[in-house]
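INFO batch 0412 | record 1 of 1 | parsing
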Amino acid sequence: MTAQDPSEHDPTADAAAPLAVPAVDIDAPSAPPVDGVDDQVREDALRAGLAEYELEEDDLALLDGQEGASGEGAPAGPLPVLAVVGRPNVGKSTLVNRILGRREAVVEDKPGVTRDRVSYPAEWAGRNFTLVDTGGWEVDVAGIHARVAEQAEIAIDLADVVLFVVDATVGPTSTDEQVVKLLRKAKKPVVLAANKVDGPRAEADAATLWSLGLGEPHPISALHGRGVGDLLDAMVEEMPEVSAHGALRLGGPRRVALVGRPNVGKSSLLNKMLGENRVVVDAEAGTTRDPVDELVELAGKTWWFVDTAGIRRRVHQTTGADFYASLRTQAAIEKAEVAVVLVDASVRMTEQDTRVISQVVDAGRALVIAYNKWDLMDEDRRPALEREIEQDLVQVQWAPRVNISAQTGWHKDRLVPAIERALDSWDMRIPTGRLNAFLGELVASHPHPLRGGKQPRILFATQADTRPPRFVIFATGFLEAGYRRYIERRLRETFGFEGSPISISVRVREKRKR
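INFO prediction complete | emitting tokens
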């Protein structure tokens, strides 16, 4: 008697072997009904049954607009980004708290408390935007110009409007003047805030900031709120309706980020696809520091390719230029639609490789894994690589894998089909009736295990969004993580989703009290 796959009996088991379930063409007009019930009839019946349960406002909004964020009611694009920049201890975080109307940013009466860029959703006069609090620039006598350039550049590059905060009681300093040069070079809208103006007598101090050449200084007191309303009015006037810098851009050529650890061959691959040496390539790791955007013609289509600096180790462990290269790489992933993660096939996979893949998945971007330097891999290395893939990439078995050589261009033509499959999955939407029919079959064959004598029942499910696909399940009880993984695995086997992360959330709802 042969042993059977335990996942056939326990749906919570994470079996690597796929179940024999035929893929479904979700666009087919005549899909066979389940148990003789039409998908639309099933959807209407399940939807009507939800009326017996306590639903919250966001539940009703989701159910009434099931096209999700990709439908007509979606915002036109990402919210504008406002970055608050300035020297240490000029009151940036205090001003951020004042704008938000609550204490979010850590404030202490000493310079350098804020070290990371932190984003907050904010609103003023009916306009929503993203507010970014940044760390102050350290005055380093040995390298002030480099420090100012590095820290100012990352804040300015990712913002639509810059709020430059200066201590009016101190006046313009040499560091402020260095930042002004960068602001002029970036050609971004700048609003100048003269902070610590606590009364009419101090307004004369604010007038001295006209010398910075950034226009009118707005006298404010972040601590007491004086003049902040007028400052916000000025900022809103400068804001675009949609961010051009702060998040994913949709429309136009699809955006592809080339990411991976240093010296894995990202720049070589971009040069090979371009047919010219556009990007500097050197044997020394870390040659690329800034993302390099290039339009590339491949397979009859135009693509935006972004060559990024290699991600070395955890961001908080990096220093200097490497720190800002890591931040820019993360920003490039967030702006891309699909990321091609290059892995050196000739050597053992590292923690850095898996961390880069995790960054892409956490950002919700489509994913393709390209094993570079395949021509350098000997026969003994291949079995070891297969074991590494099985062990280290068990959570992303759904990602397309391509074997290439960036140096010679071998198999580079296989990259575009893999990218297209990943993007098709990223954009995929399953009709609600088909989704509920699928779940009906799934639960009938493998119901959720009994826990404490009770068995949660799935009431209704809908796809709330695409890019990446996000599913919401209404149930009478919490679905265990193992069962959610089982649902995800069967979703992938049935509908595809090759190359795209998907998320499944559960909303537990109880029956209305009579």
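INFO post-check: Residues 320-335 form the longest helix (16 residues).
INFO record closed
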